[in-house]
């Protein structure tokens, strides 16, 4: 649903999932074995911008989906079979483990949208601004530099259910039972559900059952998920704990 013949689809998606569009391929990956020089708890939201040097240090890897041979593809979902997705190294490893864990329960999850460069988001902004005006952009298009997808640590998934790909946002939201089972497994692999239901006040985003964020360790992910915190709340509490007198 993301890449095909872009504008109308882009528009629809931009409206439904500001965080989760388009994969870009412009960052230069470092050597994969180099120790990470970045913070897996980096906060990027509508107020907090991606650190300026992030894209020059983050280590990204290419990934593709492996789809069952008998799956029916169409113009709305064939990108799932053809796109190359970029994901931060450790996050990708963790995602593969999550995928296996889900598969044990007969659930198939796929990469749907991952890293998106700031440059790509700028292009997108310019395209929409030209066509629909700046006001429209401010309302519906993520501001370049302020999307968590720039980090390489955010993954939007879609699912296969009963031999059919479900990648429509509304349909995914309606699959409550299925997504609850997936969400139960996230923390074990270092992921959190980044935009929980009813927490717009803290995250700035409506419920997105498909958007997962890698936070670097299962321990931290469990603390966040088990306490029902948002990443924003967790980071505030951590800062307070480190500076009790402030
Ligand atoms: Zn997303």
Task: Give a quick rundown of the structure.
40% of the residues lie in helices and 13% in strands. The chain has 246 residues and is of the alpha+beta class. The protein has a single domain, classed as Muramoyl-pentapeptide Carboxypeptidase, domain 2 (2-Layer Sandwich), CATH 3.30.1380.
Give a description of the structure.
The chain is an alpha+beta fold and 246 residues long. The chain has a single domain (6-30, 38-242), classed as Muramoyl-pentapeptide Carboxypeptidase, domain 2 (2-Layer Sandwich), CATH 3.30.1380.10. Helices cover 40% and strands 13% of the residues. It has eleven helices and seven strands. Strands 3, 4, 5, 6 and 7 form a five-stranded antiparallel beta sheet that branches. The chain has a two-stranded antiparallel sheet with strand order 1-2. Helix 5 (118-132) crosses helix 6 (134-140). The chain is globular, with a radius of gyration of 17 Å. The termini are far apart.
Q: How does the SSE layout of this entry go?
A:
Blueprint: H1 6-16, H2 54-57, E1 60-63, H3 79-82, E2 85-88, H4 89-104, E3 108-113, H5 118-132, H6 134-140, E4 154-161, E5 164-166, H7 169-174, H8 176-186, E6 191-193, H9 200-203, E7 211-214, H10 218-226, H11 231-242
Antiparallel strand pairs: 1-2, 3-4, 4-5, 4-7, 6-7
Helix pairs in contact: 5-6
